[in-house]
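Re: that chain you flagged

S.,

Sorry for the slow reply, it's been a week of failed gels. I finally had a moment to sit down with the sequence you sent. For the record, here it is as I used it:
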Amino acid sequence: MSTTTTTEHQVTTALSGKPLAAQIRAGARERAAALGAAGIQPRLVVVTATDDGSTMWYVRSIAKAAATVGIECDIADLGPTASPARVRGTLRALSEDPLVHGIILQTPLPDGMSSAALAAEIDPAKDVDGANPESLGRCAAGLPGFAPATAEAVVRLLDHYGVDPSGRTVAMVGRSLVVGTPVALLLLERHATVTVCHSRTEDLEGHTRAADIVIVAAGVPGLIGAEHVGGGAVAVDVGTNATDDGLTGDVDAVAVDGVAGALTPVPGGVGPVTTALLLAHTVEAAHSTATG
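Prediction finished late last night. Pasting the structure tokens below so you have them in one place:
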């Protein structure tokens, strides 16, 4: 399930997300088939308003993955000149459509648009990526609802590899509402001691090096090096940065090899689990509609 690299000081284990993602997709496929037998077709709609090539590639990859588990996935491409009113109206219409079970508002959005304000138009019961501020509030309160998929993917990966956060110290580098803040909330619920670090944090190195678990979602390639990681710590790299050398993370994987006890690879770590959870959330939403 995982690979290891050995140095004279430390064995660094690669925490691949692919086995867990496959497991989640298999569960979603089984539930989707049961819904289909009952005459219910799980349906996901991804709303985009951009001409960014990498974003559209990602959205198409979601649609392709959805098809493999029996989910119908449509892309509502509004284009980069879409007005806030048009995006808002589209999200409202989809929220009211009984044949739509999951809705994703894909970023980036055109300049001047607030993703949080627009995501507030998504029915929380269909908010499979936890983008509606109400969904984040439910996450903070420990109430039922969909957590942001990337944040949940981080916690599920830790669980999958037997890394129990209870009683352990965590340095969360990044405080976005998509990853950093919800990860902190989810881990606090799991009884971890969490320090949230960001661009104004003094002595970032000191905070991260003292942590048992370091999670990085800052969007800065190679931000975290060997000096930031304590010996044997678990490092979860959520960064996905397009560089001339390909997709790289926020952790300098070469530098921390032999220092960290474990590291998620980029690509192939958190990303596959995130996509699988979006599908699982959609099937869960369809099931709730059928039974609710």
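What I noticed first: Confidence is low (pLDDT under 50) at residues 1-7.

Talk soon,
D.
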